[in-house]
Amino acid sequence: KYLSQGGKKGKKAIGDKGKGGKAAGRINGHHQENGMENMMLFEVVKLGRSAMQSVVDDWIESYKHDRDAALLDLINFFIQCSGCKGVVSAEMFRNMQNSEIIRRMTEEFDEDSGDYPLTIAGPQWKKFKSSFCEFISVLVRQCQYSIIYDEYMMDTVISLLTGLSDSQVRAFRHTSTLAAMKLMTALVNVALNLSINMDNTQRQYEAERNKIVAKRANDRLELLLQKRKELQENQDEIENMMNAIFKGVFVHRYRDSIAEIRAICIEEIGVWMKLYSDAFLNDSYLKYVGWTMHDKQGEVRLKCLTALQGLYYNRELNARLELFTSRFKVSTTLSSSVLCSPCSSTDEVLTPEDCESVYHLVYSAHRPVAVAAGEFLYKKLFSQREPEEEGAPKRRGRQSPNANLIKTTVFFFLESELHEHAAYLVDSLWECGAELLKDWECMISLLLDDPLPGEEALTDRQETALIEIMLCTVRQAAECHPPVGRGTGKRVMTAKEKKTQLDDRTKITELFAVALPPLLAKYAVDAEKVTNLLLLPQFFDLEIYTTGRLEKHLEALLRQIKEIVEKHTDTEVLEACSKTYHSLCNEEFTIFNRVDIARSQLLDELVDKFTRLLEDFLREGEDADEDDAYQVLSTLKRITAFHNAHDLSGWDLFTSNFKLLNTGIENGDMPEQIVIHSLQCTHYVILWQLAKLSEGSSRKDDLVTLRKQMRAFCMMCQRYLTNVNTAVKEQAFTILCDLLLIFSHQMVSGGREHLEPLVYSPEDSLQAELLTFILNHVFIDQDDDTNSTDGQQDDEAVKIEALHKRRNLLAAYCKLIIYCVVEMKTGADIFKQYMRYYNDYGDIIKETMSKTRQIDKIQCAKTLILSLQQLFNEMLSDLGHGFDRSSSAFCGIKELARRFSLTFGLDQVKTRDAIAMLHKDGIEFAFKDPSPQGEGGPPLNLAFLDILSEFSSKLMRQDKRTVHMYLERFMTFQMALQREDCWLPLISYRNSLQAGGDDDTMSVMSGYSSRGSSVRSKKIKPPVATVGTPAPKRKLPEGTEVKSVADVKTMQTPVMMPSPHLTSTAMRDPKRSRDDGYMGVYPLPHEQPPPHPHPQHHQQTPQHHQTPMDYNNGVSISVCSRRGTGLMEEDEEPIVEDVMMSSEGRMDDLNEGMDFDTMDIDLVRNDVEIKSNFFYQICL
Q1: Which PANTHER family did the record assign (predicted)?
Q2: Selection from 116, 160, 158, 135 nearest residue 258 by Cα
């Protein structure tokens, strides 16, 4: 049982009396029973070992004895259930407002963990939520006759929960919202009981009053009136409590930023509507459910559907939802689990137009929705069948009752105008209409038999749709899994499902083995119908050809396929024939020899014909007419289609095709399609030979032959990259990329070391040509795509197809980068297009960056900075060195740099070396070229530092100092004193390196200068080079105007932005010095020090081994960094949780490119630091 202690352990609790007092044998008014040790209410509910009613009864007893102590226990119970370690004391309870108590408890939270009892995983917390909810329900139920009306307990609890539900702390908000909603549900039950009692009392009163005067009991009438008055008062009080909870908690939390909290609110309001429909089932409450159906989280939408489903199932409540249904019709049509259940029983709810919007959900990618919509469609359109007469023979084929239903399916499919999605329609209807969809005998009859008298025959379009649906049903029955995009992974089939699959395959083979030849004969000239029909043998059980004595039908099928090959030149039809031969040529079955002979005869005829036609065609040369070219092309297309699935190594196709391609290069007048198919056929020759050699049973001569053929073919494809025809160039490029990838260094992995002689690495010239092709044919504007001819430039479908083709070309090249076939630096030309072509190729480029980073982080960083440098040089060539940094071109490069920076993620340790190398290359590029204005002007590329500053936030704090030191090696003393606008990039970059820097980075000078004047006291002449100064040293020459450290420290930072004031609990000693060789010139501008009384002399600064550029030939003093502001960088903004959803977009920018190692965030030790010579080490 529940035993409580009101205060902290060791303190005397409220309600405790002295020895021998009334409370002897109690603790906080609670009996100790069954030897159970004293524990707090939270622990009792957490353990869940006691009957909840017993726990509540003990609390009620303590409340009657000392309500303040018991209420304090209840308050602490809610606080502890939120995961807070704090305890509300009696003094706090008496003297502080709820808001002050909540603020105090917020400070007691354990900041090391974000978990709290409702979210903690583990067996001991598994039942906590149910025990917590049960406690609240039982508490109200046990108090419903007295305590909840004392205007103290409920007022205090509701006030506390309302305050907690408005907290910024998620744990408080989540726990208190759940408690308030369960409290509301319990009050609804109380209100419902009061309403029933009031009705009963009213009926008793009316019955007593209607009696005759002699039998009427006036005393009973007065009692009933008094009872009704008390019930009414209690009802009013309960309604006030419910209004307080609804307006104080629900109205705010149903749109909380946390989906779980929103789901709690919607789940409970559904319970209220069902329990107490008279009060809650109206538009004032239904609107919240309707609005929340648009929630972006499926969990919340599901709660809405569950709530509505319970209402729609109830016919009495359903009638009161008419206005809601009409108002939120669009939302409900998107929720099939609501529509498909209630609307099936209430046909008047939706109009035919509304039903049509539900029908289209059968094409949904989400299978449960599609299946539910399929059931809805089946019940609406297919549930009414023609009744069959008893004793009459079962009608089959065209006279089957399913004939009209199959036609209806065809009509629906055609009217939906989604002709490429028949497989999805079949899958949606499969669970409810499998019997209909498996009536292949009826389908065959509709296609082959003549229509009955008075029956309208199917049109050509309807026959095409029926064949497509028939193929999809056969595939669904044979494969037993949903189409692509709907599957949830491989599912283990049950024994019953496996038996059904075998039975269906047997039935398919028996029916279509007989019906397929006449179907092919009837539709032999229709390419689309023939293509679908030729796919049916893939699902046959070929053993039945022998066991069922169906060999004659096999012979008929082979004859029909041969005739189709001879009649058609369409690629899809020829490939379907090739796949059919491949399916039938299975060595496991006895029909193999018969099919293999037919296939060999067909291929012999095709190859002989091709060889003869090709010789004549090449002999005629320019005199060849179009008929000769067409004959060569049609035969070559047939051979290529078969070579895709069959090994034609027995026929020497490489020699003839290579000869044809070489002639095309020499003459330049070879028809486009002939070249394309010849390239493809030769490609297949190479791949089939490689497949045979990969088996390990190859000879050395075969390796040598394949090596020569492969390299000669690659050179041929390279020559065709300069062809005038775009389609030829695209084919050559695609094949080249495939071959380079296949014959790369990775082909020897997996125990294939014997293939090492075949490894081929592209030369620099080939890499350059491939890159040039990508830049000229992929990164182009839509209007520049010359491949969209025939006046269809404005056709959206043509544009989409052209874009799809360009995406494939880019993906082929990016694979070469990812697998290190070409140098990674060539990716710079790809990466720099990321922003400009983001909509078209952003996903491909982003994935390429991700993969290259996984291969080599440093080389990837060098590639990214190289792409920015290329864009910068292009901008300089277009705008000149005097460009405006606010121009769109420069801002575009900065934005690209920002996007690149975000792709590095949040884990600075993993990307540490890469970011450092990126800064090193960027600094060297900025100071590489001298100023076009002569000595004293900014370097040509100095503005690049403004772009480089976008990556400063990715540097670890201690690494910023090292990067800053590296920057100082390129700076002269004059540069540090410049304040013109042209020097702003240098200043802003230095500031970005100093922001958040450690105090250890401060030099002696910056320590003094923190108290220095913000006004320049005197002008300093630029240092003059001394002829006798040794090269390895930097020192001040004689005659320099700078006489002391005080002179230097009084100089103002050139155009230095004022530092924001840093609020900190401790400030470090600013006088701590850095290396003696570095002296600072940048003071902090916001403090005014007294004049320094003693001049100090500059120390000589050793010069590092890397000499600055020509414009740095003056003597310089290295510039040190000032103390950083300590403010967070942009991407280091702490992830905080706002209460309302309106603030959820705050992290959108941060999430850009977050798929690159961003989730594993390690804590960085402050003592980790890149050494000063790091940049030279990583270059080696």
Answers
A1: COHESIN SUBUNIT SA-2, STROMAL ANTIGEN
A2: 116
